[in-house]
Amino acid sequence: MFTRKFGVEVEFTGITREEAAEAAADYLGSTAVFSGGYYKTYETRAPDGRVWKFTYDGSISCQKKEGRRTVYAGEDYSVEMVTPVLLYREDIDTLQGLARRLRRAGGFANKSCGLHIHLDGEAHTPRSIRNFINIIASHNDLFYKALQIAPERMRYCQKMDLWLVEQMNQAKPKTMKQVEDIWYEKYSGSRSGHYHSSRYHFLNLHSFFHGNHTVELRGFNGTLHAGKIRAYVVFALALNHQALTQKCARYHKVQEENEKFAMRVYLNRIGFIGDEFKSCREHLYKHLDGNAAWRYGSRENVRSHVNTHNTENGGNQL
User: pTM of the predicted model, to two decimals?
Assistant: First the structure.
């Protein structure tokens, strides 16, 4: 699971792109330079040669702090940190450390900000792509509630299109060309444009077909909370691993009365096991209803549930 390459785009505001690049350079032991271009980019080259970029993003509502007040700010305060290619075991500490440094420098994410994770698409096949689509679609409601996707961001992070799910499962494409044709079937115009409207979904395959050959997950609110960033990265890698390794993932809409328990069981199933990922699990079911430890809510009402079940089925009560 942790051998797959990935990259992260973290949107935030509160400080300028230049200030963000300088904070990153200070943390990495490097220097910040203005490379310009359409995205008005600042870059920091780490000692290992990899470049961390701080670019402009027009979707961000720019703000800054003045004393205790949060006020509107100019476009210099629109910041998207674009990481180089990363590996989890080797680079997660650096990513988290940078997030903490940027937060201390005054950066923060508001409701307009998102966090996007790009997963290396090299190992994917038509089967694994269809698996990924079914996994996300089956858990649409649970994932969106768990991740608390802000209404302001829904236009950039739509739920999986059930028409697409049905088409993929009916056609069972055997080639990537067939997968691509189904992905774009409902859209007119050129497929090659960077801002193609098909990209604005939790699972974005436009970047896979006409980008950097990555599968992008866009279903995360922007944050500079290091623990949340780690949780989101582990979650993305685990979903990717499930899509790649599961023989067949069918579409089945998850409906669970105890959301926290359902999420905990699912996370354990895809690799969130043990104390190492305890905080990651907690971040991902914090906003769900129910009880993570007991399927029926608590130790006390397990007996009540069993009694009710037995009575309804003509059995003896305990």
Answer: 0.91
**Contact status, residue 102 vs residue 81, Cβ threshold 8 Å:** yes
Helix (H, G, I), strand (E, B) or coil at 133: helix
Residue 252: the pLDDT is 86
Select from 97, 12, 115 the least CA-distant residue to 56. 12
Count other C-beta atoms under 10 Å from residue 73's C-beta. 18
Give CA–CA dist 10/188, Å, rounded: 30
Q: Using CA atoms, how far apart are residues 135 and 141, in angstroms rounded to an integer? A: 12
Contact predicate 160/137, CB 8 Å? yes
* Per-residue pLDDT, 297: 56
| Ranges in the chain, pLDDT < 70 | 255, 297-318
Count of all residues that appear for the chain in the document: 318
Residue 56 phi/psi, 5-degree rounding, is: -85, 145
Query: What does the DSSP assignment read for 253-310?
Result: ----SSHHHHHHHHHHHTT--SGGGHHHHHHHHTTSSS-SS-TTSSHHHHHHHHHHHH
In contact, 114 and 153? CB cutoff 8 Å: yes
Residue listed under structure tokens 């995205």 = 39
